[in-house]
């Protein structure tokens, strides 16, 4: 019977050494035929040596472990080394792929080795997992890991509550042309109306989408897509003309970089 062979790919040499040492304890008969320091090397060695198992770090230069797995999974059983615990549990629930959390523990590796040995026996009996199933899992894992680490988009303020007499008016931020501080209040200007609210500009800056509202002056925030025109007056100041509003707003020197073309 031919010995079972494996490839280890990780861009960190200490991690490769640790995994090799752990494998020697957990599976003494397993032959490590090659080690790779990046995804490109992993694919080249995997295609050349055709190991039964490929242990792939997910984050590697050149090609990621997932990209390398797409090239190797039809000939090798894939085991990912990952730090993405919460995503791994979901992505590997079907069992066609396996994973190890870094740093690799002896107990978890023993479980993985037992699963691999069972799969190898299954493959020898001609009932291996369908390649398309593994391909689907790789696609799912890719999506999960691409989303990991992306900060959730903050729930930016979309409505302003303005007191109008004895009534409360809800004003959509899409209606607002600009905010301007006015002593104890902040003025809210739309095309057809003006309101006063008690929120400060600083509070609004923290709550509004920075891609939608820009501060052009210490006392003024404008909705960017409501700016109709930027021009300079006789004193060289940048002045904004807002859509549907007859007045002009001054851009302070500290914020003139926002309109560099002027």
UniProtKB/TrEMBL annotation:
Residue span(s) of domain Response regulatory: 5-117
Ligase keyword on record: no
Taxonomic classification: Bacteria, Pseudomonadati, Pseudomonadota, Betaproteobacteria, Burkholderiales
Pfam entry (one): Response_reg
UniProt modified residues of type 4-aspartylphosphate: 57
Species of the source: Telluria antibiotica
PANTHER family documented for this protein: REGULATOR OF RPOS (PTHR48111), RESPONSE REGULATOR RECEIVER (PTHR48111:SF69)
Protein's recorded name: Response regulator transcription factor
Keywords: DNA-binding, Phosphoprotein
Sequence ranges assigned to domain HTH LytTR-type in this UniProt record: 160-262
């Amino acid at each position: 019977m031919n010995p079972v062979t494996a490839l280890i790919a990780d861009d960190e040499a200490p991690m490769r050494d640790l995994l090799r040492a752990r494998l020697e304890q957990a599976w003494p008969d397993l032959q490590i035929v090659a080690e790779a320091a990046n995804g490109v090397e992993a694919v080249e060695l995997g295609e050349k040596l055709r190991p039964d198992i490929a242990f792939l770090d997910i984050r590697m230069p050149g090609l990621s472990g997932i990209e390398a797995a797409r090239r190797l999974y039809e000939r090798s059983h894939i085991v990912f080394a990952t730090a993405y615990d919460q995503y791994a549990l979901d992505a590997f629930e079907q069992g066609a792929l396996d994973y190890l959390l870094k740093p690799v523990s002896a107990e978890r590796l023993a479980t993985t080795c037992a699963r691999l040995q069972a799969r190898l026996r299954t493959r020898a009996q001609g009932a291996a997992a369908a390649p398309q199933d593994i391909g689907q899992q790789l696609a799912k894992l890719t999506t999960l890991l691409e989303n990991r680490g992306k900060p959730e988009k903050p729930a930016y303020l979309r409505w302003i509550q303005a007191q109008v007499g004895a009534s409360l008016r809800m004003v959509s931020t899409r209606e607002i042309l600009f905010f301007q501080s006015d002593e104890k209040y902040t003025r809210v200007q739309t095309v057809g109306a003006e309101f006063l609210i008690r929120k400060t500009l600083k509070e609004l800056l923290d709550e509004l989408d920075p891609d939608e509202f820009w501060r052009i002056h210490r006392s003024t925030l404008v909705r960017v897509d409501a700016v109709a025109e930027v021009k300079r007056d006789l004193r060289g100041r940048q002045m904004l003309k807002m859509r549907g509003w007859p007045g002009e707003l001054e851009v302070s020197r500290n914020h003139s970089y926002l309109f560099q073309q002027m």
